Amino acid sequence: MSHHIIQAQGLHFVYPDGTPGLKGVAFRITHGESVALVGANGAGKSTLLLHLNGCLLPTQGSLRVGDLPVTAKTRAAIRRTVGMVFQDSDDQLFMPTVFEDVAFGPMNLGLGPEHTEPLVRQALERVEAWHLKDRPPYRLSVGEKRRVAIASVLAMSPDILVMDEPSSGLDPRSRRELIELLKTFEHTKIIATHDLDLALQSCPRTMILNAGTIQADGPSAAIFSQDDVLLQSRLEKPLLLRACPRCGAKPQF
User: Fold this and answer.
1) Measured between alpha carbons, how far is 234 from 215 in angstroms, rounded to an integer?
2) Which fold does the domain 6-241 belong to in CATH?
């Protein structure tokens, strides 16, 4: 079974108050793809992400991860395959130390200390945060918390990495380091973001959500060059694709 493939067909979701979140979403993401999910506020990005590990379940249609449909019965198995990094790192970091936070997932899978410790070290070293292992999470900067949150997911060895607004609140240097870090991951990645330049630099493919539907899906540079599509979706062209305001030179991306 390929745990890496995600496929949605006619995916609908309606919130309990009757508000529609998704309207007939369909897509297929294959092993190793890096896909950006962009759209204005309220477009349905977070709603879709929360379906990917079973936090929300479809009202209609289907969503599959590998051979498993995402249902209440399969949620536990799905969450071993799909690792999610939430927008607010404080939602994921709750243990007394960074080491304990990253160890929490593997230990809850039943791994003993002799197996957990190497996984924690490997995950923290991968995000260049091993030196933070003894620090309490609440004493970390936003960028440090983001690295530790990513490490806590990587320690679970997921096949699919899902991230919600990973660059939110980061200073320019931390944002640049995050982009370089994302490029090193071999996982299938799905990144929901308002940062279209990050999407362009990190994800060869982009899906635009608009009012719960997929407005566009294709190569990122091509998608972000379609002014009419961006306008309809209340998005602006990434800075990397804009002509120089002084000389008019066109970007070479």
Assistant:
1) 11
2) Rossmann fold (3.40.50)
